Each structure stands twice: as C-alpha cells, then as structure tokens.
Amino acid sequence: MLEIKGLTKVFNAGTVNEKIALSSVDFSMEPGDFVTVIGGNGAGKSTLLNCVAGVYPVDGGHILLDGHDVTRLPEHKRAKFLGRVFQDPMMGTAADMNIEENLALSFRRGKHHTLRWGVTNAERAKYRELLALLDLGLENRMTSKVGLLSGGQRQALTLLMATLESPKLLLLDEHTAALDPKTAAKVLQLTEMLVKEHQLTTLMVTHNMNDAIRMGNRLIMMNEGKIAVDIRGDEKKSLHRADLIALFEKSSGSKLESDRLLLS
Amino acid sequence: MTQVLLGALSLGLLWAIMTIGVYITYRILDIADLTVEGSLPLGGAIACVLIANKVDPFLASFIALLGGCLAGLCTGLLHTKLKIPALLSGILTMIALYSINLRIMGSPNLSILRKPTVFKPLTTLGMDKNLSIIVVGVVASLLIISLLYWFFGTELGSAIRATGNNQKMVRAQGINTDTMKILGLVISNGLVALSGAFIAQSQNFADVQMGTGSIVIGLASLIIGEVLFGGRSFYRRLLALILGAVAYRIIIALVLKMGMNSNDLKLFTAITVAICLWLPQGKEMIRKIKKSMAKEGA
Description:
Structural class of chain A: alpha/beta
Structural class of chain B: mainly alpha
Strand content of chain A: 15-25%
CATH topology of chain A: Rossmann fold
Number of strands of chain A: 10
Low-confidence stretches of chain B: none
Helix content of chain B: over 70%
Shape of chain B: globular
Largest sheet of chain B: 2 strands, antiparallel
Number of domains of chain A: 1
Mean pLDDT of chain A: 89
Order of helices and strands of chain B: HHHHEHHHHHEHHH
Distance between the termini of chain B: 52 Å
Number of strands of chain B: 2
Oligomer: heterodimer
Mean pLDDT of chain B: 93
Radius of gyration of chain B: 20 Å
Number of helices of chain A: 10
Order of helices and strands of chain A: EEEHEEHEHHHEHEHEEHHH
Number of domains of chain B: 1
Distance between the termini of chain A: 31 Å
CATH class of chain A: Alpha Beta
C-alpha cells in the first residue's frame, strides 16, 4: 500500500543549521497494516509522515502510494489517497464552518468541486448516523460552528472526517498528544473502532510507548532519521517496554534518553 | 435635508457593491486586498470609455466587471505563483492599475455628460436621478447578495470559505488553496469594478483618483454593517454589508452637514475604522478594567 525507497529529507541544507531529518529510509506497508511509529524528539517521525503527505518536497528517494509514484505530487493531489489527523486539534477542521459543512468537505476529498450544493439532505442523514457513533452528542449540533467544540470533540470529528471516504492510508500525527488523558483515551478508542470498521491501513506516530505497544500489528522506532527497530506479528504481541528499550539501545548503540518517551 | 439623505442613500447603495467585494477578501479569504483602490477606478474608466464610444451602458458595466476580474487575477497570481505577500501583491496591482487607468481614459478624467447610463431607462420614465440610482442600487446589490448566498453554499464556494479558515486542512481535503484564493480575488475585484462603473455613471465622469481611500471606506462600511446590523446567518451578514455602506454615507453626510471641513473626511474615516477595528479588543479591555475596579472597591 505504501512503499518508501531511499527517502531523504534535509532541512536547511548547506547552512550551520543543517539537519538530516530522514536519511535514506526504506519502509513499506501491506494493506491492512496498522503501524505505530515511536521515537524521541527530532527522530524523524513527523517528517516521515509529512513527506508521505506531501507537506514538503523530499531531497531523495521515492514514495509510492497504492502503486502510484507520488514523490513529486503536490499535497492537495495526494489527498485522495490519504486521511490525515494532526497533533493540533484546531488544525484538522475549519473553525468558522459548521459540523456538516466540515464533513461535506471531507466527503468530497480528492474530487472536483462543482457548483452543486455543498451539503445535500441525503448526506445530512448519513452524517447524523456517523456522528452518533462517536457518542459525543454531536449529531444534535450539526449546524454548530466547529470553533465552538472542545479540542477532544474537534479531534474526534477530524478522525471521522479522515475516515469518511475510506482512505488508502490513514496518517495520524501524534493526534492525542494535545489532549488530556481521559479525552486521549476516548480518541484512541475511536481510532481503533474506525480503523477496524473500515479495515484501514494506518500509520500512527505517537510519543506514548504504551499506546505504541498496545495498538496496531507492527511497531517501528525511529532514531536520527533512520528506522532503528521494526517489530511485527507475534513478536510485537509479546513486547514489553523493557524489551523495546533494550532493542533500541542494541540497534542504535546509544542509550534512550528521551524523557518524553520514557515517562509517558 | 431629505435631499442630502437621499443622496447619501443612493451613493451608499452603489458603494455597497464594492463593500461586498471587500467582504469576500477581508472576511472570507482573510486577505487585506488593496487591489480595490485600482480596480474601482478601473471599472469607472472602462465603463466611461465604452459609453463615450456609444457602447450600451449595461454592456459597458459588464465589461468593467470583467476588467476588475482580470485585476483580481493579476493580484492572485502575484500572491500564489510568485509567493509575494498578499498585501504587497495588492499594492503592486494597484500601482500598475494607476498607469493602466490613465492609458484607458487617455487623461486623468473622462466626462460622459449627456451620454446614456444604466440609470437612463428609469429617468426617461420620469424618475428623479437620485431615485433611479436608488432603484438600480437596490436591485443590483440584492441580486449580487442572492447570487453570492447561493455560490458560497456550493461545493466550490464552501472550498473558498474553508481556505480562508484553515489552509492546511483544505489541502488535506485535496483542494488547491492557490486556485481558491485566486478565485476569491477575481470575484471580489469584479464586484469592486462594477461598483466603480456604477459610481462613475452616477456622477457622469470617471477619475483616476476615484479609488483613493476606497479600501478604508469599504472596511468602514463593512464594520459599521457588522456592528449595527450583523447577525448569525450568512444572508443576514451579506445584507448588513449593504446597510453598513448606506449607514456610512449617512454618517458622512451628517457630519458634513454639521459643519466638518470636507478635507478632513478621510482623517475622520480612518479614525472611525481604527476605533471600529479596536472595538472587539476594546470591549475586552474595558471589561477587565471594570473587573479590577470592582475588586479594588470590594
């Protein structure tokens, strides 16, 4: 579903601030894979996701989505393959537009925008049903502006929007990092529900080691722009924090020193 | 006095079309577009030159609108393709249009006295000039807000609104934000040029200077409309723009009547707009001061 070959991304190339964010990364995902990505600050997790999404151009390598080479495709042209949820709950929705209008934009992801109505009545009925699944009471507030919702509600809505038209690949970029623990748990539960329901191929970046171990069928750990650990299948099922830390230290030859990662 | 108010009403209705244009960029796209200072006289220039050359005034006004669209396209391309900041892109087009407007008219101003205008069909029916402007103004502005109400409810219109809200999200939905910004600027400046064409016909001449300060007049009308007549629904907000533009002209007519020097008008407008723009923050500030005073008192 996703195939990455020799992907390299360098920020501020040729200056004193040069930073190799991704160094010739090879990585591929099978349809239905749910991969969790973990790593310290600056390890390259978000850069990897953003390169797949086309947020910035890459400096080397190829990215194939569903068999199409999208390496040179601008962000908005890749959107038809991708569902995306961002770290900032404000980022995934349009605050001044109401809930149904936001959903309608996602419903038309990657399609041509015509002079037909932005939201039709048939859609409204469908959105009401889907919103009810979130169990947040949003189905009764479909004409409320999204800006009036809480961060957790907005993130749940973004998640629903991202999965509305089953994407080839779902990209989750630390999508619970800005939420309080209770809301984060709720959003993760929704994530698992929606991924399972649509059988989505998912790439989830997280800073929470427990979530990374608990969720998905495969885990990768990044360090200095490279994939340091790659665990899947039964090996992942029996994985514990201590194993993961040991694996990381063995493969990278350095101690894991990210507080954010270890304390979570 | 009635005559003064009727004059203000008719002028306000023609400027309302321009205010609607400003609303599209300033509120919907979240861009302060200075192109309008050039596209307003552009509309006047195109309409007057065509009318002077015996073109039907309605057709002339429509071509003026297309001219404005082109000016908006120019700003849009400068902003999105050359990555020049929106404010500067607008200024560049505005400056370029000053020369272009002079070229179109061949002189700094052009009279179309005794030539037919869009108001002529009504005045030949025996209608007073002011009244005919009011009728045309009301019909045109209501028609425009109805069209925009429909347009911004469509898929395309929704995509433009979302672009003004959150570009990152819009790109993630597969929408080209550059195209949406260009489209918004095109529609906005088309309306501004149409307004310029009507204003020029109402005063029987176009002047290369007629756009000076128009962005501030547009913003003043927009904000006065929002403060005095604003509401929740989109139609109500569009209607408030027309009422705001009229209210602005009435306020100006009244302060002039009260004896203000007309040379001070732009200063007055600028101060009014500054105060109105500050109002939301000002309310908050006054609330805080009141709160802290209440605390000290207790």
